[in-house]
Predict the 3D structure of the following.
Amino acid sequence: MINLKVVSPQKVIFEKEVEMAVLPGAEGDFAAMPNHSPFISSLRPGQMAIMSSNKVDESFFVSGGLVMLKEKVCEVLVDQIEPLSDVNSSNYQQSKTYQELEGNETALGTFEQVVNNPPYK
Amino acid sequence: MPNLKELKNRISSVKSTRKITSAMKMVAASKLRRAQELAESSRVYADSLGFILSSLAGNTKNSSDLPEILTGRENSKISLLIINSSDRGLCGGFNSNLFRNAKKWISDQQGQGKSVKIMTVGKKASSFYKKTDLDIVASFEDLNSNDRQLQVSEEIKNKIMELFESNEIDEVSILFNKFVSAISQEPTYQSLIPLSNEEAIEDESEVNNAVFEFEPDKNELLEYLVPRNFLTQIYRSVLESSASEHAARMTSMDNATRNAGDMIDRLTLTYNRTRQAFITKELIEIISGAEAV
């Protein structure tokens, strides 16, 4: 199990033990698992998926950020994050994240895509 | 002899003042708790970011590899000072302490042959510096909610990046009241450009243990990290300043409430004495009138 800690500039969003987390790294998606080599990467807008035994348990949209991985800790510093369980294709435009990203076309496009057709299901 | 009616009015007006100040004290106390929580919870992000930045910068042996915005320009001529004041008054020496401190700092900088530009946060600073002949590059007001605080921090960050890139400023410092405790706040400077490396030194031992792989490469990461770091530092100072403001207001309103209480006691004493004097005088008049008959 790896300790996944998701932090926004304002607060700690959550912290928990997970089997695997898939993150949208700047140069491609990667999976954070225990004993990954120490690694720092920036994130591109995309889906963050928490998985166990090849199934997605929880899924989020992140608008960008940073991730630091070492041993059994995975720290994700996000700009904006939206749990995908709360939004669907009809109401995602009302979400706070959507409004905060106003003007950022690429991120909004990705948000729409992730809501309608997430890469990890 | 003081007029009884006048005294009575005085007492009731001081009483209502006391009600207001004690209410303000309560409000400040509850806002302080909230502001402190916010400052606390934002610390996690700032610490992690500082750690990542120092492991990045620490890994780059030659400091000339680092971008100017991190290390500062060699011949810096123009300093920018960001002053974090409050929007409202009635908070004791909170703002005046800050401005006095800033004045000293500004004349220090000018003594070193640098020119100084100002950026103000909060209504008090903008109205104060409007009267001086300093160059104000931007003013931000109405930081009344947490979202607004974050938004203002973002705007300040964009502004300083823009000014730095167009060579209008060479150094950036931020001045705010650091929250030490509920009864003590101290004006503190923090240098944004060049980046103060206190944190880098603190974490050095830890950094050496783990050699990180970076993706994308260091320079691209730094490009993302540097503005992020500005934002967190500015946001942090705004939060500290707001916690300090509420603390300062709480203490000064507590004092005001106590002073009002003392004043009411004194006035009541005078009122009672005067009333007694009137009664005695009337009695004397009656008795001496009866004696005369």
In short: Chain B has two domains: 4-23+252-284, 32-251.
